[in-house]
Amino acid sequence: MSRLIVVSNRVSPTQAQGASSQGGLAMAISAALREYGGIWFGWSGQAAPAFTGTIAMQKVDGVTVATTDLDDQDIQEYYNGYANRTLWPLFHYRIDLTAYDRSYGAGYARVNGRLAETLHPLIEPDDLVWVQDYHLIPMGRELRERGAANAMGFFLHIPWPARELLVTLPRHRDLVEAMFHYDVVGFQTAEWCDAFKAYVLHEAGGTILPDGRLSAFGRTVRAEAFPIGIDAQGFRHLCDTPGGQASFQRMVESKAGRRMLIGVDRLDYSKGLEERFLAFERLLQDHPSLRREVFMLQISTHSREDVPEYQEIASRLDALSGRINGAMAEMDWVPIRNVHRLHTREELAGLYRAADVALVTPLRDGMNLVAKEFVAAQDEADPGVLVLSRFAGAAAQMREALIVNPFAREDVADAIKRALGMPLEERQRRWRALMDGVETDDLMAWRDSFVHGLQQARDAGRQTG
Ligand code: GDG
Description:
By secondary structure, the protein is an alpha/beta fold. The chain is built from 16 helices and 16 strands.
């Protein structure tokens, strides 16, 4: 059996422990690595005075984790720069926030080369290589240039932008050409996959082969949608843990008979948090009878704090919730509970269960796992309602949610109103359909279908090679 080599931007040995406090993705990757054997490789998240390519190898709970440190310039140009100030905003349709600095592009190329140089000696001929996310698009090409002939796949966790936006990126052809060094490239939705194909066909002069593969730049690649899921049963069980039950109880008491809207997000401009607060304000303005009856718990954990745009969104959001609260709060009621503290996954599960409505209203999102976690955590007898942005990848699967346009404040306010008044029978019917999808298209199904795609690529290579 082939080993699996997973390459992610950041890897920490604790992720491999599969602890319940870790995200589901880390758990799924760890489980696959335990099953297939292999290595999880990536940046340690640490800075070294100079890049040396020294590998720290650790075996954690049966998973081999290999990490290397980057130097400060690498972190600045590759991670804070090209990944998070160029590709992230551009791929989330924010060309107004995109930094097109040459030094960032150079840092991105350099670090991908350095990581490939470090990883390459660890790869054995039969290994399947699975590269994760936008930080590492050129990794496959860098490995090929060093002689790796393995079956290789790339999965993009974020949207792929429309070609009209992608062409604003200097050297966009080079980035797309890099995708053709993989055997399989996976996207969250058919929509992002189609956007990639549109570029290949109309910008790169490529074609679609009879077997469905794309051909361009003298190479071929299979491009497909592999929508990511969550460990639905595992997440549901978190509600029954002592931590899950305690946070549920605490929240129910704190609600004091009121109804609660919940939002859980990394603090990021793509998540539509300001628009969400403004939609809630509009709801309370249009329906004064809801004041004191409803409040919003918004948990937004700080992220990427070295990037100026994230400092700005964080302070804008605090100012906005402060303004709304100041104008509307009463002695015994505050409309928005704006919380930045990190919670455990058990606590989150309990909070989701205690909520009446979830607001998942990103302006653009690859998938959005919070939507799926909320559904998994609901009480079947009295489930809450999911309000979901049409611009989240999850909307392609979760049709029974109340689908909204997050840019239209009144529409979101109307959907919240409808969610709050939805009869039990309708809530149960919608929840059942959503839960069936979340359970069927779960994280393990996602992982196994991608690995299966890699195995097919390896076997096809054996037949022709
Ligand atoms: C990218 C794509 C795609 C949040 N606060 C806490 C906490 N979280 C967890 C949530 C959820 C995760 O973070 C966020 O996942 P999302 O999917 O919503 O978003 P991104 O971080 O932007 O992820 C996204 C995803 O990759 C997977 O492919 O869905 O579209 O942008 O799991 O629960 N977890 C803990 N404490 C918190 O306070 N423990």
